[in-house]
Design a protein that fits this description.
Structural class: alpha+beta
Radius of gyration: 24 Å
Largest sheet: 7 strands, antiparallel
Low-confidence stretches: 254-265
Order of helices and strands: HEEHEEEHEEEEEEEEEH
Distance between the termini: 35 Å
Helix content: 10-25%
Mean pLDDT: 85
Length: about 290
Amino acid sequence: TARLLGVVRPEQAVIDWILKRTGPETWYGDDPAVLSASRGRLRVFHRTDVQEDVAEIVGRFTRPVQPQVSMRVRFVNTSDLNWRNGLVHLLKPAALGPDGQQVWLIAPEDLALIRNRLKLDRQAGPVNQRVLANNGQTTTIATGQSVNYISGLDLASGVYAAYQPIVAQLHEGVTAAFTPLWTTDGSAVDLDVRVSTRVVNKLHYAQSAAPLRSGSQEMVVQVPEVAATSFEQTLNWPTSQVLLISAGVQPTKASSGRSPLNFSSGSAEVLILAELDPPVSARAAARRVAPANR
């Protein structure tokens, strides 16, 4: 992690992956345990079997098949939920979210069938956006825009004292955070994925009379009505498979052109397609070929 000069506390990713592998309860039980990290050093005290698991994770950081993970990510939205019709057998379930979100693995040769079936109401973000993540570190992709609203009032000082609106912001759209860690042979990554969605359905107006030295000032504040979902899953993602994530069906606002999730109908399914590029290093290729030669 000492080489990642542009990353704040990159050693935290090592700790996080160790906890995912061994379980947080491993470090807070009856066994004496120490787990601490700095940019250049990791300190571990535990049973031999736990130290072996830690060594495997650390080796994937210090001797990765390549230092970065390259992905192509595409956000799409569709109001036609029947895109699944006749294609369900091609979707291999990989994870489920708490609010009905789903994650599937797809064979690359079947990806064209799914793309052709999707009726896109709107392309959310660039087509096949290439994303480079440092091995084991988090990279975040966000679509959408900020929504300003009047959250409160502030008494301005001066000759003419009066209340001024306090303008705050909400981000609406889709945010996806990918944290990939190469396996030892480079045939897959262990992926921690977090996806959140937010739609500002309406800004409700509330009258607010504010007292002044002489009389009062009538003002209006806004109270946002927000629909939001989020989920986090860790899964194994082979380089030979395409990742398809459904963030669920989100409400839309047909009467307003402001929302990034605005379609002709009252709801739309948010989908994320992600393709993983295999490592290009000679060492990774040798590791993938070696088992076949035995």
